[in-house]
Design a protein that fits this description.
The complex is a heterotrimer of chains A (321), B (291) and C (245).
Chain A lengths: L1 H20 L2 H26 L7 H18 L4 H23 L4 H21 L1 H4 L12 E2 L2 E2 L3 H23 L2 H11 L1 H5 L5 H27 L9 H14 L4 H17 L7 H15 L3 H12 L3 H9 L2
Antiparallel strand pairs in A: 1-2
Helix pairs in contact in A: 1-7, 2-7, 2-10, 2-11, 2-12, 3-4, 3-5, 3-10, 4-10, 8-10, 11-12, 11-14
Chain B lengths: L1 H31 L6 H18 L4 H27 L4 H23 L14 E4 L2 E4 H23 L1 H11 L1 H6 L4 H23 L10 H15 L4 H21 L5 H15 L14
Antiparallel strand pairs in B: 1-2
Helix pairs in contact in B: 1-2, 1-5, 1-8, 1-9, 1-10, 2-3, 2-4, 2-8, 2-9, 3-8, 5-6, 6-8, 9-10, 9-11, 10-11
Chain C lengths: L1 E12 L2 E12 L3 E5 L6 H9 L6 E6 L2 E2 L5 H6 L2 E3 L12 H9 L7 H14 L15 H14 L4 E5 L7 H18 L2 E5 L3 H7 L2 E6 L2 E6 L1 H5 L2 H16 L1
Parallel strand pairs in C: 3-8, 3-9, 6-7, 7-8
Antiparallel strand pairs in C: 1-2, 1-4, 4-5, 9-10
Helix pairs in contact in C: 3-4, 3-5, 4-5
The chains are: A mainly alpha (321), B mainly alpha (291), C alpha/beta (245).
């Protein structure tokens, strides 16, 4: 618990310090990283804990963003109010889809979720009366707290960091609860999990819905920050980016989700010094990371920690109550 | 009626491209278990190999085609060495992301080399039309369908009548047993990648004159080939062919009779329905969680 | 009082009859062994009883409830427990967490209560010193014991054990037998044991059920079974056919 609170405070302190010291452009990227971080913490429930390969995570982020965008621009709702149906509706939708879909495993589930994501984009790009088609929806109102508008990059970042920290904290509570253990048990061995009384289908659907809830929160933040949504923002490529973030950071860990989201948000920008070929390098670098760091940054830390083993700590860990 | 014949021809021609892409995807999947998300980029590279030899270098038709296919064979071998070998023991998600990542690299290298402006690609049948009692259909489309039929026949002969094809099927069935039987598994797997790349290359060369050569054409093709694979049955070659033709026809007929905006929803909707109610597809393997 | 009552269980795979009209009834705190040559249908019967394989026909009653169509997890919550032939643990969880998952099959227990229950059960099995170790650090024998502990933590009324002695050395088998006896006495737990180690079967079981080719060919006390000609024939028959190969 202490460690968890420390992580929470650490994230806020580092984020706040950065928010005061970096350029406007970097602030913008930090905002995008925080939003991606929330989404990837969500994906970690489905993929990191339960092992469900979802290539449709961006569609849930998009669904949340679009519900909020439509309710605010067409029905005149306040973004705070609109975020409630946006988040809950997305979660319910994921549960309804997940119930039949999550019987699939491995690449079947990957392709099914991919198909869902592609279908979402087709609908968003063509249901013009509702979604504005490929032009998207502009002029989505921003958030404001007690009359103070979170319109600049800096105040929005503070807000996004608080949401990220809170949702990361909640995720870590779930991880170490019986539900989190049940999720990991299902990933390790479904049959053995059922044999301990775990309702495997319910756990899968719950993790999938939970991941969609987080994605929808990220979608609402995205919509109110950028004030504009279009189908391009939520394509299957974005879903694959989210999965990459989780794997580069370290699947199954919340810190890894945040690190991966941050790194992969900034990496293309850092590579821009390479000029036009930066995306070609980005692909090669990703491949290199997957080959040489299969367990991500967190795995690297673990390996480094294990290479310098202190027998006292090992013993202390065992003796811990 | 005249319209329908035209549409059917175009649908079968497009379906041929999807079927060949799906075949390349399936032979790799059966032999190696790799779900190759760069399969669409293989087709794009094939199209641009044709641009390089036929347009840029100005080689005559048969030489240009052969040159492009040699390039594709080398590309397949390179992919085997750089992507498959390092990732072969990785979990499925890593392979998916790895092939997507290298697909980004391939796409951007093509962009750097050829630019973003779409190229017209020549066909031996440029401008030729066949008049079927009032219905005019493109000779290229007919040629694509016939060529695909011949290729499928050749592939069947390769897989069932030649030592290398039979060895490839043995590897696809059980790598360990194939190794015990003394088969040189690594060479066979390399050959599988080369064959897949050449099939994709042929698809690319045939697609070029139907669309334009565009560096962004890979992803849409790959998605359709995935849908074709699932509908036909994961891991099944007849399935890839049937699925490919289904998706091509659904796209062309759907655009004309249902809605041009939602034409692609048919393929993906049918794919999801298959996954839910008949995940083994039309001809598919028994479902198992294969790494 | 009968805890588990399976009646007329048949299981057909295409043309193969894996189980043919098998009855199995187990009373509270009874110790029943299920034996038979390889391929006799013992594991299939366990899979049918736990809901992993639906039977072609027959009914299963657990704690006076018809569970024939119930999912595995609800049978576990109704008082069933099972271990697997080769020990299936959750590799990413620690020993303690594995047992906590087992203890969590009833709703409403707090995390602290779960932890205490899991530690107590580990203590009962003499495994408390491994509580905070990863599964990968365990020996094969201890893995099997942890799996048994995880099943026990769910407080089952009846426990199905699939060859718990396989792969254990003789000292570990002795230890396992002592603990099984103690637990059974203390918790009035019924046990169904599949085991090839006949010494273990004869010393533990009160009743033995013999399966061969999917049918029950004999049932009775260890002494009666040892003298049963049909059983001898089944084992010798299997033995001689092996010799023939």
């Amino acid at each position: 618990m202490a460690l968890r609170l420390l992580g929470l405070v650490g994230l806020l302190v580092v984020g706040f310090a950065l928010s005061l010291s970096v350029s406007e452009y970097a602030l913008r990227l930090l905002n995008l990283a925080a939003i991606a971080g929330i989404s990837v913490i969500g994906l970690n429930f489905a993929f990191g804990y339960v092992g469900l390969i979802s290539l449709g995570h961006a569609a849930f982020m998009g669904l949340g963003a679009y519900i909020l965008a439509i309710l605010t621009t067409q029905a005149g709702w306040s973004p705070w109010l609109a975020s409630v149906p946006a988040i809950l509706g997305t979660g319910l939708c994921a549960a309804a889809i997940g119930f039949p879909l999550l019987r699939l495993k491995g690449h079947y589930l990957a392709l099914a979720t991919l198909g869902l994501n592609v279908s979402f984009v087709i609908v968003a790009a063509n249901w013009i009366e509702l979604t504005g088609g490929t032009n998207g929806i502009a002029k989505i109102p921003g958030l404001s707290i007690a009359g103070y508008a979170l319109s600049g990059e800096q105040p929005f970042l503070w807000f996004a960091l608080v949401i990220l920290a809170c949702l990361g904290f909640v995720a870590s509570l779930i991880q170490s609860s019986r539900h989190g253990r049940a999720m990991m048990a299902v990933r390790d061995d479904e049959t053995a999990a059922a044999m301990t009384g775990i309702n495997v289908t319910a756990i899968k659907v719950a993790a999938f819905a939970l991941s969609a809830l987080y994605a929808a929160v990220a979608g609402c933040l995205f919509a109110t920050h950028v004030n504009f949504v279009s189908p391009d923002d939520f394509g299957f490529a974005q879903s694959i980016t989210f999965l990459s973030m989780l794997i580069v950071g370290g699947e199954g860990t919340i810190v890894g989700a945040i690190l991966g989201a941050t790194l992969l948000t900034f990496l293309p920008e850092w590579l821009r010094v390479l000029g036009d070929s930066y995306l070609a390098f980005f692909g090669l670098m990703m491949l290199g990371i997957l080959i040489f760091l299969p367990t991500g940054i967190i795995g690297l830390f673990d390996r480094w920690r294990r290479r310098a083993p202190a027998p006292e700590t090992a013993a202390a860990e065992v003796a811990q109550p | 009626m005249a319209d329908l014949i035209q549409l059917l021809t175009n649908g079968l021609a497009l379906g041929s491209i999807y079927a060949l892409t799906a075949i390349g995807f399936v032979i790799v999947y059966s032999a190696t278990g790799v779900v190759n998300f760069a399969a669409g980029q293989f087709v794009m590279v094939g199209t641009f190999a044709g641009v390089a030899t036929l347009v840029n270098a100005g080689w005559p038709m048969p030489v240009g085609y052969i040159g492009a296919l040699v390039v594709m064979a080398l590309f397949g071998a390179l992919f085997y060495l750089i992507v498959y070998l390092p990732l072969r023991a990785s979990p499925i998600v890593t392979v998916i992301i790895g092939t997507v990542a290298i697909g980004i690299t391939i796409q951007n290298m093509a962009l750097l080399t050829f630019g973003s402006w779409p190229f017209p690609v020549p066909s031996p049948f440029d401008g030729m039309m066949i008049d079927l009692g009032g219905t005019v259909i493109s000779a290229h489309a007919i040629a694509v369908v016939i060529a695909t039929g011949v290729l499928i026949l050749l592939l069947w002969l390769l897989m069932h009548r030649t030592a290398i094809g039979i060895a490839m099927r043995a590897v696809a069935q059980d790598v360990k047993v194939a190794r015990l039987m003394g088969l040189r598994v690594q060479w066979l797997l390399a050959f599988t990648w080369i064959l897949a790349a050449v099939m994709a290359g042929i698809a690319g060369l045939m697609l070029g004159p139907m669309w334009f050569a565009d560096v962004n054409m890979g992803d849409p093709i790959a998605l359709k080939a995935f849908a074709a694979t699932v509908i036909g049955g994961f891991g099944s070659l007849p399935g890839a062919i049937a699925g490919g033709f289904f998706v091509g026809l659904a796209e062309v007929l759907g655009a004309s009779y249902v809605s041009s905006a939602y034409k692609d929803l048919i393929a993906f909707g049918v794919m999801i329905l298959f996954l839910l109610f008949r995940p083994q597809g039309i001809f598919g393997e028994k479902i198992q969680d294969r790494g | 009082m009968t805890i588990l009552d399976a009646r007329g269980i048949s299981k057909r795979y295409g043309g193969l009859l894996a189980l043919a009209d098998v009855d199995l009834s187990v009373a509270e705190s009874e110790f029943v062994a299920l034996i038979g040559p390889n391929g006799a249908g013992k594991s299939t019967l366990l899979n049918v009883l736990t809901g992993l394989t639906p039977p072609t026909s027959g009914t299963i009653t657990l704690n006076a409830r018809n569970v024939t169509r119930s999912a595995t997890h609800s049978r576990i919550r109704a008082g069933l427990g099972r271990t697997f032939q080769h020990g299936r643990l959750f590799e990413r969880l620690s020993v303690l967490e594995n047992v906590m998952v087992g203890a969590a099959n009833r709703p409403g227990r707090s995390d602290t209560a779960l932890r205490k229950a899991a530690l107590d059960t580990l203590g009962l099995m003499g495994l408390e010193r491994f509580a905070h170790q990863p599964i990968s650090a365990l020996t094969y024998g201890n893995r099997r014991m942890v799996e048994l502990t995880r099943a026990l933590a769910g407080q089952p009324r009846i426990l199905l054990l699939d060859e718990p002695g396989a792969g254990l050395n003789s000292g570990e088998v002795e230890d396992l037998m002592t603990r099984l006896r103690a637990i059974r006495a203390e918790h009035r737990l019924a046990i169904v044991l599949i085991e090839h180690n006949m010494g273990m079967v004869m010393r533990l079981a009160e009743r033995i059920v013999v399966l061969n080719f999917g049918s029950k060919i004999a049932e009775g006390t260890p002494t009666a079974i040892q003298a049963d000609p049909a059983v001898l024939d089944a084992y010798l028959g299997a033995g001689s056919s092996y010799a023939g190969v």
